[in-house]
Hints:
The protein is of the alpha/beta class. Helices cover 40% and strands 17% of the residues. Strand 3 (71-76), helix 4 (81-88) and strand 4 form a beta-alpha-beta unit. Helix 10 (238-246) crosses helix 11. The termini are far apart. Bound molecules: S-adenosylmethionine. S-adenosylmethionine is lined by residues 25-30, 54-57, 60-61, 75-78, 101-103, 126, 128. S-adenosylmethionine (SAM) binds next to strand 1, helix 3 and strand 3.
Amino acid sequence: xxxxxxxxxxxxxxxxxxxxxxxxxxxxxxxxxxxxxxxxxxxxxxxxxxxxxxxxxxxxxxxxxxxxxxxxxxxxxxxxxxxxxxxxxxxxxxxxxxxxxxxxxxxxxxxxxxxxxxxxxxxxxxxxxxxxxxxxxxxxxxxxxxxxxxxxxxxxxxxxxxxxxxxxxxxxxxxxxxxxxxxxxxxxxxxxxxxxxxxxxxxxxxxxxxxxxxxxxxxxxxxxxxxxxxxxxxxxxxxxxxxxxxxxxxxxxxxxxxxxxxxxxxxxxxxxxxxxxxxxxxxxxxx
Length: 287
Ligand code: SAM
């Protein structure tokens, strides 16, 4: 089996296929031998489960997932890496590599075709950092039958995604993540663990997908419009952002805040999930 945490092995297999690293596609490959086994262990994947991997690169994480899962489908956007993966994953019969963009793939169909005999479906990845949040939001919003999403992300992005709603670090994206999942920061990974080494550190996070949200808004789309508007002006009060974002008068916004038991000068990052929900229901009645 290829030792893909060995720099010379990576270089050899890439140069055999005439491939160089693509910065534009966020290609930073894991070279710390402890990281991939730990990601797979923490993901909780079992021999009965199917896994979608996004961006296998040269296959370092893919190999570790393949050892533990029943089936693995890996989507890689970079066409040049497909023959490389053909070599590095030759020992595994439970892996399918597809040359595709995860954002343009019909995942519902892919899951039905590939994982119908699997107990649970997991997403595991060292994500390309240039589209971390869009990928995570797409996975959560599409309500795919996924048990958990265990992914490596840039450290700052991980902190924001997993921030407690109602805490200083929270933003609209933390609310969305919390709405669909229970988020946990698992472990820190320094920049030296990658080749080429990026300018930022990383961390692995796990999003356990909720069967249903804790609160069910009358209109989910409106709830997220409220959240986006409330957090839109970070240094100002929620009322400011809500008024401009929803195109509603300040009087109406103040009334909705008061009906929700909130101060009219409250900041969005102080609001809990329940308070955001209550506020959005009040605003919905007044729209
Ligand atoms: N999994 C490998 C590892 O950990 O060493 C590589 C991770 S690297 C950070 C991200 C990978 O995602 C690259 O191989 C890149 O080509 C691929 N990628 C980038 N954008 C993608 C997309 N939209 N869909 C699928 N793969 C993508």
